[in-house]
Specification:
The protein is α/β, with parallel strands linked by helices. The protein has helices at residues 15-23, 40-55, 68-78, 92-99, 126-140, 155-171, 188-200, 214-224, 251-263, and strands at residues 26-31, 58-63, 83-86, 106-110, 119-122, 145-150, 176-181, 205-209, 227-232, 242-247.
């Protein structure tokens, strides 16, 4: 028989352990879609986990959209997080507003043009991958028409779509390029309808920038027997319709920035 009891005396906290806990790098990630989307948000989560593994950081992640963004940023800053990553163009402007109140926290968005001492932005150069995908699509297309399905209509997505179109036209100057935005990165039904409409118009190779709503694109392509391209993460295993993916490797960028913040050398920049 084992008997457990409680002592009336309280252990004093170990000063060394307390100091270590206070100095531990704390990093938060805000995403526009679930990290299970196998694409844009999943890619950022891989970067966050690289920071946790390599630097021993305490990490948290949260889906935050639109009006939720400033409050989520403030919440993590108030809890002592040194870095708050906002994964998308839409996080850049809120970062500028919130950062003024939290000079000890660094706010970084994936894309965006605004900076401050403690605000920066990533540029992943995904356009290069989209250009190559456009070349491949033009080679593979039998109809002479390729398409792009976007969720939110923001400059960073338009930039990748321009690269896809340029890549396709570099192979076939006469190729038809179609583009559609649904206005949502979470509405798979809307992206499926948009994709089916493109297919109805003769498009037989389609790439997306639709976060979790990419499922609608892939489902439509699979049903109609046309080719799809993944984006941001390696999505080749997500659907048999996918022939290739334009991929971002986020880990090195997240790690480099986290190390700069940890060493006190970070200055806001793009």
């Amino acid at each position: 028989m084992t008997i457990a009891g409680c002592s009336g005396a309280k252990d004093e906290p170990d000063p060394a352990q307390t100091a270590a806990a206070e100095s531990k790098l704390k990093v938060a990630l805000l995403t526009p879609s679930p990290i299970s989307d196998a694409g844009w948000s999943a890619m950022a989560y891989e970067g966050l986990k690289a920071v946790e593994k390599e630097l021993g950081a305490e990490v948290r992640n949260q889906e935050a959209k639109s009006a939720q963004i400033p409050d989520a940023m403030r919440s993590y800053a108030q809890k002592g997080f040194r870095i708050v990553f906002g994964h998308g163009y839409e996080y850049n402007e809120p970062s500028i507003r919130v950062a003024k109140d939290f000079p000890e926290t660094v706010f970084v968005s994936s894309s965006g043009g605004h900076t401050a001492d403690n605000v920066g932005a990533f540029r992943f150069a995904l356009e290069e991958g989209f250009f190559l995908a456009g070349m491949a699509a033009a080679k593979l297309s039998k109809s002479g028409a390729v398409g792009m399905v976007g969720g939110d209509d923001v400059p960073s997505i338009r930039s990748t779509f321009k690269a896809f179109a340029a890549g396709a036209r570099s192979v076939n100057p006469e190729i038809k390029v179609r583009e559609v935005f649904t206005g949502s990165g979470s509405d798979s039904a809307a992206t499926k309808r948009a994709t089916l409409q493109l297919i109805e118009e003769g498009v037989d190779c389609i790439i997306h920038q639709a976060n979790a709503a990419a499922k609608g694109v892939f489902d439509a392509c699979e049903e109609k027997g046309v080719m799809a391209f993944g984006a941001n993460s390696d999505q080749n295993s997500v659907s048999p319709a996918i022939v290739a993916s334009a991929v971002i490797v986020a880990g090195p960028a997240f790690l480099e920035l986290a190390r700069e913040v940890q060493s006190g050398n970070y200055k806001g920049r793009i």
